[in-house]
């Protein structure tokens, strides 16, 4: 699943380039850096491979989302539609720019149900934010259509789906803006890092400036640069970018191991009656970092999750998870913040605690997800799939 499993010589080589020169900053210091520009090189590598016009690295996936929202001019009182199943960073970013997270139901794609999105649109809606959970895609065809019809933006949270594609295009490059995370447990890691992708030049200029205190990056004299707009410091360091660049060079290897392992698991479970698989709209495009199955009831899913754990098969039961599903987001439901929100902001927030997310519950409560390791040998995957098969058959035949 995560790139850190493949930590090795390539990461050390790129890091060493930076350590040798001692220039840990991505901008300026031309005469001292032995011509190493790891952040720039990583951006260009993504741009080239993913066939996108512009890439801006950031300090994290969270700051990538914040940057994308800012770059598109999303702020006070604007509504952003996102799914009930995501990582908390998605709604944190929306709240941080003063906007309103509107959480809507998911379907068996494990992300936005386009019908729920359509129903949630109001005159305040500015953005649909699909989250491509666990390596695979939201229904971008339907969502793009809805966005177009209502003249709103599509900002992809592709943080969990680096390298995945939909109908031949990379996730993160299909909406108006797309965001990736390179935190320590993502498909490719920088330690900490993120990226914003766009084909829109104006948005790119904003991302370039916003992540560096508004610097316009014109000329070679940092001190003399102008600041067309306010910004913040969401820069990535050269050390982090060096790791990301090294990992990126192994993306094909990462994807092919994951896809092969997933195929073995899925084939092994195909014939089991009483389970089904996550609906993946473009199976070939799945980055295959995870493998999700549905049981028919919550009770069976809980049983399966526990029984798999007992047999040493790592798995996630998201319905009880603190970080990824609305049920346990009490800090959001109670709007607990250290610094209080403006009254006007707070008053616009929906009552998440009393909202009806039963459609999402009905999906997530039946879902069990197995993370796919890059380190499993062929024999180990075979063995694991036999164990999974046995465990599930036993539960389902009772
Ligand atoms: C990891 C993640 C983020 C945030 O990324 P960080 O780099 O950890 O800040 C945002 N959205 C989703 C869906 C994620 O999984």
Automatic annotation (TrEMBL):
Q: Which GO terms describe its biological process?
A: polysaccharide biosynthetic process
* Pfam families linked to this entry: DegT_DnrJ_EryC1
Active site at: 186 (proton acceptor)
Keywords, comma-separated and alphabetical: Aminotransferase, Pyridoxal phosphate, Transferase
> What InterPro entries does this protein's entry cite?
DegT/StrS_aminotransferase, PyrdxlP-dep_Trfase, PyrdxlP-dep_Trfase_major, PyrdxlP-dep_Trfase_small
Highest taxon in the source lineage = Bacteria
Q: Where on the chain is N6-(pyridoxal phosphate)lysine found, per UniProt?
A: 186
Mind listing the GO molecular function terms for this protein? Answer: pyridoxal phosphate binding; transaminase activity
Q: Does the keyword Cell membrane apply?
A: no
For this protein, the record's CDD domains field holds: AHBA_syn (cd00616)
Does Transferase appear among the keywords? yes
Would you identify the family this protein belongs to, as annotated? Answer: Belongs to the DegT/DnrJ/EryC1 family.
Q: What is this protein called?
A: L-glutamine--2-deoxy-scyllo-inosose aminotransferase KanB
Q: Which organism is it from?
A: Apibacter adventoris
């Amino acid at each position: 699943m995560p790139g850190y499993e493949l930590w090795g010589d390539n990461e050390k080589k790129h890091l060493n380039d930076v350590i040798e020169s001692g220039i840990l900053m991505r901008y300026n210091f031309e005469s001292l850096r032995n011509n190493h520009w790891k952040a720039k090189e990583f951006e260009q590598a993504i741009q080239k491979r993913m066939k996108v016009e512009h890439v801006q690295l950031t300090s994290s996936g969270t700051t990538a989302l914040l940057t994308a929202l800012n770059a598109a001019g999303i702020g006070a009182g604007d509504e952003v539609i996102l799914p009930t199943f995501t990582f908390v960073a998605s709604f944190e970013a929306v709240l941080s720019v003063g906007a309103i997270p509107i959480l809507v139901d998911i379907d068996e794609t494990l992300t936005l149900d386009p019908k729920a999105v359509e129903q949630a649109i109001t005159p305040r809606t500015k953005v649909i934010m699909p989250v491509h959970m666990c390596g695979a895609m939201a229904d971008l065809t339907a969502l793009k259509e809805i966005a177009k019809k209502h003249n709103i933006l599509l900002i992809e949270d592709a943080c969990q789906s680096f390298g995945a594609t939909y109908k031949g295009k990379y996730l993160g490059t299909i909406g108006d803006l797309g965001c990736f995370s390179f935190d320590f447990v993502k498909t490719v890691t920088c330690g900490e890092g993120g990226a914003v992708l766009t084909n829109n030049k104006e948005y790119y200029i904003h991302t370039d400036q916003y992540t560096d205190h508004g610097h316009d990056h014109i000329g070679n004299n940092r001190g003399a640069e102008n600041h067309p707009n306010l910004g913040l410091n969401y820069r990535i360091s050269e050390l982090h970018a060096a790791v990301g660049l090294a990992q990126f060079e192994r993306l094909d290897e990462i994807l092919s191991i994951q896809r092969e392992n997933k195929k073995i698991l899925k084939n092994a479970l195909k014939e089991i009656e009483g389970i089904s698989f996550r609906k993946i709209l473009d199976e070939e495009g799945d980055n295959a970092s995870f493998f999700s199955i549905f049981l028919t009831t919550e009770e069976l899913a809980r049983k399966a999750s526990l029984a798999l754990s007992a047999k040493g098969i790592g798995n996630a039961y998201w319905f009880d998870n603190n970080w990824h599903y609305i049920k346990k987001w009490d800090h959001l439901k109670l709007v607990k913040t250290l610094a209080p929100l403006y009254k006007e902001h707070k008053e616009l927030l929906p009552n998440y605690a009393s909202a009806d997310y039963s459609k999402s519950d009905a999906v997530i409560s039946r879902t069990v997800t197995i993370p796919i390791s890059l380190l499993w040998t062929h024999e180990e995957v075979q063995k694991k799939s036999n164990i999974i098969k046995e465990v599930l058959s036993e539960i389902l035949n009772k």
